[in-house]
Amino acid sequence: MKYKMQQKQNQRIQQITDCTLIVGADIAKETHVARAIDFRGIELGKECVFANDDEGLAKLVTWMKELQRLHGKTDIVFGVEPTGHYWFPLGAFIQELDVRFVLLNPHHVNKSKELEDNCPTKNDYKDAKVIANLVKDGKYTEPKLPTGVYADLRILMNLREKVMVNLGQVQQRIQNWLDRFFPEYTQVFKDWEGKASLITLRKSPLPQDLTSLGASEIVNQWKSSGVRRAVGMKRAKRLVSAAEKSIGLKEGLMAARLELTALLEQYEMFLRQRDEIMVQVEQLLNQIPGTEEMLSVPGMGVTTLAGFLAEVGDLQGYDHGQQIIRLAGLNLKENSSGKRKGKTGISKRGRSRLRALHFRAVLPMVATNPEFKALHHYYTTRACNPLKKKQSLIALCGKLIRVLHTLGTRQVQYNAEDLLGPIRKSQIQMAA
After folding, report:
1. End of a domain among 241, 261, 281?
2. 352-368 and 321-328 helices cross at what angle (nearest 10)?
3. Which end of the chain has a smaller Cβ tally under 10 Å, C or N?
4. Does residue 427 register a pLDDT over 70?
């Protein structure tokens, strides 16, 4: 049975009753503004302006309890528009109070602000009321804030992404250095990140250093540093020959040597951090049930699975894989009116990191996983409504999400015939 968004919307509206106090809060770095309404949209009491500290949160709790007492409300729904990372402490605090905490899409808040007073004015007081009204109409989502092992996993994968960005920048800067001072270097070492190459860059990076050392001394450097294979006198002679003919810069060599030393230190640091993070990530994955089954999918790696679980959290919190597809913004949308039928595309209303993760995962799967390869062939060559290649890849992203959800929740091994039923065994054989 497919997950129906309309049913979920009805459930949200039905949860707002005449006994519900609806609070909308506009979040800032230091000072927040909260306003309260009832299920008909009538504002209750004055707004509450509170600081982002212990005293401010205590003031908020007192204000909500007083409104509950005055108006006979038994439950509270607290809605915010997520502003950067500032809402995390407040969200955790509200959930500890056993109060329903919900999020509003900033795009919805921006588009709805003129419904309040027919004016494009935007300020904290107005936004708090707009947020409360959207909550009343059920236009919210309930965040799945990670806890336990999933909280650690999300922080580690976010950190890994930042480390990989920094690592990529350092790699480009080292390549930039080589292009300026020793452009012929990559003709000898195709990959400057190899062991022998890194030894050379640390001890004698400039062409003048290599020329003065000579081939025999260069080989001794490699051997004394533990390099036993793949490089020898022939490579050393080529390196010296390239250094003698180098057209690299001849000025600023002292500073250039210092620059490369600093870049190599950063490069080694980021590599070490990446490896340390992945060791911790693998330990966390071993604590999550269903990871072994999800890794049984051909082409699924530890990094991809860790990124997936870091974004979605506990898979038991989702009734159907379609919920995760919507979370990733991979659900379909179209603009149609009357007899005009518009083009279909993905909504992109969701976690962009999760969406990109699955697209990068599907690309190699189409080449190495027999079932996904067959599906891709079927989608792009079927007689009725064949898809373009990129459309097929997007469809396979949704298929991969549903497969992972099934394997993770039921904890069963990957089986192409059971989990990829729509392609049928004969189609797999034809594509193979």
Report:
1. 281
2. 110
3. N
4. no
The position carrying tokens 């959207």 is 134
Q: Tell me, yes or no, whether 27 and 131 share the same domain.
A: yes
User: Could you tell me the CATH number of the domain that includes residue 75?
Assistant: 3.30.420.40
Closest to 411 (Cα-Cα) out of 305, 324, 296: 296
Write the secondary structure of 344-375 as one string of H (helix), E (strand) and C (coil): EEECCCCCHHHHHHHHHHHHHHHHHCHHHHHH
Rounded (10°) CA dihedral 230, 234, 239, 244: 180
Q: Does residue 4 carry a pLDDT above 70?
A: no
Q: Count the helices and strands in the chain (H runs, E runs).
A: 21, 7
Domain that holds residue 95: 15-136
Name the DSSP class of 76.
E
CATH number for the domain spanning 216: value is: 1.10.287.4070
Q: What is the DSSP letter of 98?
A: T
Residue 141 domain-assigned?
Answer: no
Quote the pTM value: 0.84
- Among 136, 164, 180, the domain boundary falls at 136
Sign of the torsion angle spanned by Cα atoms 207, 213, 215, 218: negative
Query: What is the sign, positive or negative, of the torsion defined by CA atoms of 176, 182, 187, 192?
Result: negative
pLDDT tens column, 171-219: 999 999 999 999 999 999 999 999 999 999 999 999 999 999 999 999 9
What pLDDT was estimated at residue 344? 77
Alpha helices in 382-423 (DSSP H): 389-410, 416-419
The total number of structural domains that make up the chain = 3
β 48-51/31-37 pair status: antiparallel
pLDDT grade for 2, boundaries at 50, 70 and 90: very low
d(CA 190, CA 192) in angstroms, rounded, equals 6
* Same-domain pairing of 353 and 423: yes
Residue type, 286: N
Confidence at residue 162, expressed as pLDDT on a 0 to 100 scale: 96
Q: Are 238 and 317 contained in the same domain?
A: no
Answer whether residue 363 is part of any domain.
yes
Q: Which of these, 135, 56, 146, 61, lies nearest to 102 by C-alpha position?
A: 135
End-to-end CA distance of the chain: 30
The verdict on 270 and 393 lying in the same domain is no
